[in-house]
Amino acid sequence: MSARTEPDNLVERATAGDRVALARLLSMVERGGPPSRALAHLTYRHPPPYTLGLTGAPGSGKSTLTDRLITTARAGWPAVAAVPGATDDPHGPPPRPGALAEAVDQVAVLAVDPSSPFTGGAILGDRVRMQDHATDPTVFIRSMATRGHLGGLALAVPEAVRVLGAVGLPLVILETVGVGQMEVDVASAADTTVVVVTPGWGDSMQANKAGLLEVADLFVINKADRPGAREARRDLEQMLDLSAPGDWRPPVVETSASEGTGIDELFAAVAGHRAHLLDGGRLAARRAARLELELRRVLRARLTQEVERTRSGEGFAEAVRALAEGRLDPYEAADRLLGVGGAGPGAL
Amino acid sequence: MSARTEPDNLVERATAGDRVALARLLSMVERGGPPSRALAHLTYRHPPPYTLGLTGAPGSGKSTLTDRLITTARAGWPAVAAVPGATDDPHGPPPRPGALAEAVDQVAVLAVDPSSPFTGGAILGDRVRMQDHATDPTVFIRSMATRGHLGGLALAVPEAVRVLGAVGLPLVILETVGVGQMEVDVASAADTTVVVVTPGWGDSMQANKAGLLEVADLFVINKADRPGAREARRDLEQMLDLSAPGDWRPPVVETSASEGTGIDELFAAVAGHRAHLLDGGRLAARRAARLELELRRVLRARLTQEVERTRSGEGFAEAVRALAEGRLDPYEAADRLLGVGGAGPGAL
């Protein structure tokens, strides 16, 4: 490895504002392997940036919303006068309004692309629309794609967020297309997760409200100037009424990203949730839970490497032959490779 | 476990035509665990049913197409007069036309639902549209959903296909919504994979043609009565012209599932691909490759259990604390839990 591409050198340059160096660091994270590991060691002690997740179905206008949020966020976190989502909480004091105004000198956008052969192209097109900020030195925009398998991306996103924080970016907007478990995994890397719906969303999603509730700290009805916005709000509020009460009820904000309306209200609601989290140690608890999830993923990736090693052996080829010839079922074959012997049906 | 729910009892009843028993077997596969493993052992020796994969973006009309294909397939595999997709192949003789006509007395549909909070509802609605066949005793329709994690579904699908074959269903249509890696994983469980596109598809998918080519044995332009069908075909043919030549060039078939046009041509093209695979041992080779993939997945699932076990230990809780306090990075924490010690940056 040449000195020029070494993680510590790149971190130093990226911290000084060199965006090419930062882009290289994120490529390093995407690729994984030893340089990525060295980078993780360089950045893990730095306090993470505040991470705002934005997720929703294709076509819900997430990219335009992100575009608008960048502009609003650059004005800084507003002083929080009230926290509408916070409900009575026996475990902690109410949030302290007014104490959390803070400058946001730079904004990073990570657009996570699940790289489906069917939907992957969309986010690429969306990036092009974000041209407003393409030449703004205080904004850093980057797509991350799946390389190989989904697990890889779930591992790479929190690392990328840490890198962005370590080089001095205080706010990361994490944009994902809502396409399944992947998106839930990525949403779990955010401090505040905003779920974007559009009027009419309810028709196609009856069966999955539980999944939405699980990830949402805030709901946005985008394209709220279209017919059906009132019904969409009613559906969301009903769903929230029926869900188990906690110390936070996700506020519902209406926006029209293309018209630029509702964006200040949305960012104020995000600031409200942030104030709620900063209070009573909730943010620290949430981040610790994320680290636990990340550790499990790293462990799983390690163990997957064991599978890859097994695969190269003669034993694996023989097991595949036995499977193809109907001499073993897949579980017996796995037992044999793992040296479990007659583990019986209880093993998996 | 009561005798009534034991896998061998259920397999016997399902083989005699009891669809309730078959549905229970598939639930058993979905749930996993020891009964599923016992079931795998009962069914692995049976020759698998022919599996036709149908995949494409939401809204491409897959369910209506499946509906039409059920009717056409029930007339049996047609005698193959010519195999348009087969190209000159130095490694084997040309397919033998006319030799493969075969009855298809029953058809199974497995609709695989990636259970996204955003897209999961769609396939449920699609099922309702398949009412034509709801009371037909020769047709068995079943949705499979993600329980827990994606890997679980990737493991369950080939097992479910084996069960369907073992109880005597000769043809399985495997329908998936194209939403990422999941869909590619599921497509890899099919003998013939049909990728469904619609006029206008090219605009949103420039970046992902390689992913489509990887899985497609056949392309269908559905809704071909709409404007843009000619351009869609031209795009597909250009893409195929540019791809590496093999012994098969995916034919492009135009259909209008809602009008019922092009369905016979589509099924004839599927029969052509089947004839191609049956020739020169290609089908056996493809199925052996699938078993290899499945074995790797079983191994990975086994090793993931190790992670879960690790998680319950005191060591794991201590590692999470060390992470949260910035005393270890995630890779160091994983090393420690796996007992690797000072493995250094080369380990992951």
Distance between the termini of chain A: 43 Å
Low-confidence spans of chain A: 90-95, 115-126, 341-348
| Major beta sheet summary of chain A | 7 strands, parallel
H-E order of chain A: HHHEHEHEHEHEHEHEHHHH
Shape of chain A: globular
Please count the helical segments of chain A: 13
**Percent range for β-strand residues of chain A:** 5-15%
Largest interface, with counts of residues having CB < 8 Å to the other chain, equals: A-B, 82 and 83 residues
Please report the total strand number of chain A as a whole number.
7
Q: Strand order, biggest sheet of chain A?
A: 3-2-4-1-5-6-7
Radius of gyration of chain A: 23 Å
Average residue pLDDT of chain A: 79
Percent range of helical residues of chain A: 40-55%
Name the structural class of chain A.
alpha/beta
Instruction: Tell me the quaternary state.
Output: homodimer
In summary, what is this structure?
Two copies of one chain form a homodimer. Chain A has 348 residues and is α/β, with parallel strands linked by helices.
Report on the structure:
With 348 residues, the first copy, chain A, is of the alpha/beta class. Helix content of chain A is 47%, strand content 12%. Chain A contains 13 helices and seven strands. Chain A has helices spanning 7-15, 19-31, 34-43, 62-73, 120-129, 150-166, 181-187, 209-215, 229-242, 263-278, 282-311, 314-324, 330-338, and strands spanning 50-56, 107-113, 139-145, 171-177, 192-197, 218-221, 252-254. Chain A has a seven-stranded parallel beta sheet with strand order 3-2-4-1-5-6-7, sandwiched between helices. The model of chain A is unreliable at 90-95, 115-126 and 341-348 (pLDDT under 50).
